[in-house]
Each structure stands twice: as structure tokens, then as C-alpha cells.
Amino acid sequence: MPLLYFFETSVEHGGMPPKDLYKLWAEHAKSSCKWNDEQFMKYSFKVAGERTVVGVISVESPGVLDTCFDDFPLPQALGDQIHTRFTPLRQYEGFASDVSERAGIDAKYEEEKVVSKEGILYLLTFTVEYDPAMTQNDLLQVWAEEGRAALKAKKSGVVLDLWKVVAERKVIAVVCVENPAEADRMSLDLPIMKKMGDRVHVECKSIRPIEKWFEDLKSLQNGQ
């Protein structure tokens, strides 16, 4: 069974001339695009304004993580100036089905087809704390309602895709909206925010597809 991992790769600036760094970035982005074509890389994004790439990969075993990026240009050239973290994931549809079953709700979710549309992309990370006033069943009921709403948003294209972090009360989502206000409204309207908002922490990053970054890098290399 393929395993999913969220990755975050950051690059330190070691005094390399900008054009040389742009060239390396371009080669790295090109490799990421190739991985997209080969379906190892499910998603790859550049974090806007940061020397950071994030995404989701699908591999056959955890051991692949030890070498999967070794052939990429940035690690080969910069070595210890590259830092990558991997977080194990599961597709959100499976998690939503599990919590619904535990909550006594008859709901099964199949993986939704990704709906692509133009817009502003944000990477949202939701971390949910336990509320001492809630029983575990109360929490499961909220999670089940949240799952139904989140997957409805995925079906509409507002949520590009989302995943549950394995063994943690954490969800990672990529959303596509027309403007920043829409992202704020969406996060406030989620069932889990309405019912236990003070226990939910959200981190937001502005992201863009690696292919768009690749096009910019080619222009920067040419001095445009």
C-alpha cells in the first residue's frame, strides 16, 4: 500500500551568487515537475517569500525517504544547507470514515477527485487540542461533522486536497480561494471552529505551484 508523506524542504543561503542559486532552484523545480509526471510527487509547492518547498509524496516504504531526494540538484550542491522534514499522512476521506463509524454515524467516504481551478493557494495546518469539558464521543461527533463539511468543500474545489497527520490531532489542507477574505470566512465557518475554536490552532502559508516558480526562475536566470 502506498504511503503518504508531507515534506518541507528549506534552503539556507550560503553566499552563493544569486544567478547560481536561481539555476540550482530551477533544476530542482524541474526535477519536482518530473516527479509529478511519474506520480511519486502528488503535490509540490513553493512557499511564497521563503526559500522553502513543501508537498506530498507517495512511496512504497518509509525507507525510500532516506534517499528519495538525494539525486535532486539542491541537496547535491548544498548538502548540509538543505533541511527536509517528513510527516506521515493518511488521506482525509479514510479518517472521516473512521471517526464517523466511531461516532455511530453511517457515513463512508471515497477519495474525492481533485477539482482544479484558478485562485490563490494557501497551505493550512489545523492542530486540535482536547477540550476537558468534552467526552471522547463529543469530540468524535465534532470531527465527523467537520469531515463531512471539509469533503464537501473539496468536492466544490475550495479545498484542493487535505490529509490527516498519522496519530496526531492535526490536519493539513491546501485551499484555493479568490481572495484572502474567503480563506478567513471559510476557516471561521468550519464546524470544529464554531464548536471548539479556542482549542484549534491554524497556521497559514501562502503557496504557489512549483511549475509557476520554475517559470519565474527561468526568467531570473535570463536576467528578465
Automatic annotation (TrEMBL):
Name this protein carries in UniProt: Muconolactone isomerase domain-containing protein
Lineage: Eukaryota, Metazoa, Cnidaria, Anthozoa, Hexacorallia
Pfam families associated with the record: MIase
Domain Muconolactone isomerase: 121-200
